[in-house]
Structures are given as C-alpha cells and as structure tokens.
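Worked example

This section walks through a single chain of length 155. The input is the sequence exactly as stored; nothing has been trimmed or padded.
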Amino acid sequence: SDSPSRAPRDTPSTRPRRTPVAAMKLLAKIAAAAACAGVASALSAQQDPCAGCDEGLAQAYQSCAREFGNPCAERDDAGIVGSGPGTKKDVSCCLKKEKHDRCLECKSMDCEFKTCNVNKAYYSERTITQEAKESTKEAYAKYDAKAMKAAGWGL
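Given that input, the structure is written out below as tokens.
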C-alpha cells in the first residue's frame, strides 16, 4: 500500500536542535542590548546641579568650615597645607563645600522664565526674615520717633 508522498512529520529527530549554549548566547545578546539602552537613557538624563540647596546643607557646610577651614586644602605627608598635590583635609566636608559653592552660583542665576529650579533664599533665610521684621509699621514707628526727636519735634 503505497501512499502518495507525504510531508515529513515534525518529529524530534527532524527539528533543529537548540543547545543550552546557543540559548545562553541569545539571552546574553538580549541582556547586552537592554543594558546599552539603559545606559543611553541614563546618559541623556541630566542631574539638577541646583537640587538640595537648603538650610541643612548650609548648616553642614558651616560646621565643616568651623572644624576644617577649607576642607578641600591638600596637605603633604608632613601635614602641611601647600600648593602641591596631597590629601584633602576632609573629603566629605570638601564635597559639602563644593556643593555649597555651586548653590551660591545657582542662587545668582537668572531664571526669568522658570527654566531652572533655584532656591533664591539659600544661605540668607535668616537675613530675609530679619529684614522683613525691620520693615514693619512698628519698627518704622520706633525709628520715626527717634528721628523726630533728633530733629527737635519734641516727642
């Protein structure tokens, strides 16, 4: 009983075999492509250099400045600060000082059209509060009374 020719059946012996090594290579290629895409997106995103400019940073900077002066100054092997290369007085305080300096630059930036996120009151919160208190009606009345008495108005 000869039958007309049939297509070969899909049996395990006729299918191409995939070895574990080939599967691992394929997974490695997929993982590498995903990692490259992640790195590219991370490189395109930029950090905000003006973020974190708050009173906490100002206090941390002041305590570092009190303890080390300029924490970024480099000392030689004898512990003397010089102009040559050496080790920084304190690395974490040096980072705080650099961030503080960057925040002072950010504070002076012109962001007329809200193109940047800047804390304009950085490192002057107390001064702004004191100036606001000095410009109240009660404060002016005290100074006006002194000025009028000095001018001879007899108050």
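What to look for: The longest strand covers residues 74-75.
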